[in-house]
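Long-time lurker, first post. I've been practising inverse folding by hand and with some scripts of my own, and I keep getting stuck on stretches where the structure tokens seem ambiguous. Below is the full token string for one chain I'm working on. Before anyone asks, I'm not after the true native sequence, just a reasonable design that respects the backbone. If someone could post their per-position residues I'd love to compare against what I wrote down in my notebook.
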């Protein structure tokens, strides 16, 4: 995403007419307002761009705003667990999660981490603005998951496509791709996900 640079500076002194050049109190008042604007106005807008507008650097509030705009839930209710799939939600220290009575048949609400939310929101944005061509979807997948390994999409020419992951798909990624409408898929085309 390219974000246009803006000049947020304001020069109040250019509004002073020549006949008020000798009005010392007015000039002092305007200079005080100018000092306030120099200190706060530009800082506010630069922080707004960094913390809210730019999805790559947004904080939690900014991601919540983007979630409302893109209609993506931040709180995910996981349906009944498929016994053939790995559960998620307990982090890297869930050694016994799938080996005992800790894996339940239905889970409650799960929160995504900040980086997970950022990725989901980027995928949703790409879903909304992409044309759905295979090269474009491949580029979106490489941008999103390229650091984890090779990923590509294959068009089966029968109104189905297959997302191929050449690595073990993290459980939260698979859940999000199957249950949220964020995968860039052409309209009317069904998809399957294949991973190691």
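-- Answer (accepted) --
I ran through it position by position. Result:
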């Amino acid at each position: 995403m390219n974000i246009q640079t803006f000049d947020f500076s304001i020069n109040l002194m250019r509004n002073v007419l020549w006949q008020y050049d000798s009005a010392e109190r007015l000039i002092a008042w305007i200079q005080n307002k100018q000092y306030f604007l120099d200190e706060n106005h530009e800082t506010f807008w630069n922080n707004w761009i960094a913390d809210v507008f730019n999805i790559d650097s947004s904080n939690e509030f900014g991601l919540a705003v983007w979630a409302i705009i893109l209609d993506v839930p931040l709180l995910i209710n996981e349906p009944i667990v498929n016994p053939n799939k790995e559960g998620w939600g307990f982090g890297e220290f869930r050694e016994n999660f799938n080996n005992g009575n800790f894996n339940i048949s239905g889970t409650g609400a799960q929160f995504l981490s900040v980086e997970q939310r950022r990725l989901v929101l980027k995928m949703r944005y790409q879903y909304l603005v992409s044309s759905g061509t295979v090269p474009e979807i491949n580029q979106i997948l490489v941008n999103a998951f390229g650091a984890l390994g090779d990923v590509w999409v294959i068009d089966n020419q029968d109104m189905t496509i297959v997302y191929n992951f050449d690595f073990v798909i993290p459980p939260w990624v698979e859940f999000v791709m199957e249950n949220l409408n964020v995968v860039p898929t052409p309209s009317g085309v069904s998809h399957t996900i294949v991973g190691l």
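A couple of notes from the structure itself: The CA atoms of residues 142 and 151 lie 6 Å apart. The chain has a mean pLDDT of 79. Happy to go over any region you disagree with.
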